Each structure stands twice: as structure tokens, then as C-alpha cells.
Amino acid sequence: MDMIVLESKLHIPVQPQRIVPRPRLQTALEHQVPHYSLTLVTAPAGYGKTTLLAEWARATDLSVAWLSITGEEDDAESFLRYLLAAWEPIQPELLEEPLGILLESQGPDIKAVLSAFLNAANEISDHTVPKAVPAPNAGTVCPFGRMT
């Protein structure tokens, strides 16, 4: 990859000193995530979406890949390269599979890369959670289930 990855985007954010505990939502995430292919957490800016998911990600026994999205990933290639960088520590073999090989190339075929991502995600058997978390003012997305 010729793109330099900003490592701070791949780490679960530091927990704020003062948070509003949300045990019902934490429990819902923990019980629902393994059973769904997409969880969408939505609320206005400042309502604690990122804090909720970060708290859950630290507490869960599931493997969690974290990606904070800020808008710099506004093109598909950049986003997919960041997604692979977030996912790679959990499944290092991805770099040697079609997904990693496709993204290593200059100007990869985005449709082929998306197919490779979907195939790789479909092969996950241990409920690994690749998760994308946009900046707090953008909404929050993570795979597996729907949060209300």
C-alpha cells in the first residue's frame, strides 16, 4: 500500500472521565452483535455513540476491529485500505488473500475489492467484528444487529 495509514484511527478511543452509563445498550450490543450482520447506532452529535461503542468494544470477549472515520476516507479506495488496516491485526492472513493482494495494487478494481471484503467477512466463523465508527458528528456504524 502506498497510502500512509494514520494509526490513531485504528485504536479504540480513550474513555472520557465522565460518561453516562448505558447498561441496557451495552447488554443489547453484547447479546445482539453475534446474531446480525449489521448494527447501526444513530443519534444526534454528542449523544455518546462513539463512547457507547468504545466502552462495549473494551468489555466484550469478541474480537473487535476499530476504525474512526473522519471524512478523509471520502473515496472508496481510501476507506477500503483503512478498513483492511483495521481488520488486519485480527486476521493477519487477509494480507495474503485476494483482499490484501487487490488492495496492494495501484488503483485497485473497487468492485473486486468489495467482493473480496464480502467473501472474507462471510468466512468469519468466530464472530469477529469489523466495525467502522465515524466521528461523533457523523453517526456511528458497526456490523451486526440494529440498535434502537
Strands across the major sheet, in which order? 1-4
What is the count of distinct domains?
1
Principal-axis shape equals globular
Structural class: alpha+beta
The total of beta strands comes to 4
Helix-residue proportion: 25-40%
Q: Which value, in Å, is the CA radius of gyration?
A: 15 Å
Q: Which structural traits does this protein have?
A:
single chain; globular; two-stranded parallel sheet; alpha+beta; disordered C terminus; two-stranded antiparallel ribbon; 148 residues
Describe the protein.
- 36% of the residues lie in helices and 12% in strands.
- By secondary structure, the protein is an alpha+beta fold.
- It has one domain (20-142).
- A two-stranded antiparallel ribbon has the order 1-4. A two-stranded parallel sheet has the order 2-3.
- Helix 1 crosses helix 2 and helix 4 (98-104) packs antiparallel against helix 5 (110-122).
- Mean pLDDT is 77; it is low at 129-148.
Fold topology:
Layout: H1 23-32, E1 39-41, H2 49-59, E2 64-69, H3 76-87, H4 98-104, H5 110-122, E3 129-134, E4 140-142
Parallel strand pairs: 2-3
Antiparallel strand pairs: 1-4
Short structural summary:
With about 150 residues, this protein is α+β, with helices and mostly antiparallel strands. The protein has helices at about 25-30, 50-60, 75-85, 100-105, 110-120, and strands at about 40, 65-70, 130-135, 140. Helix 1 crosses helix 2.
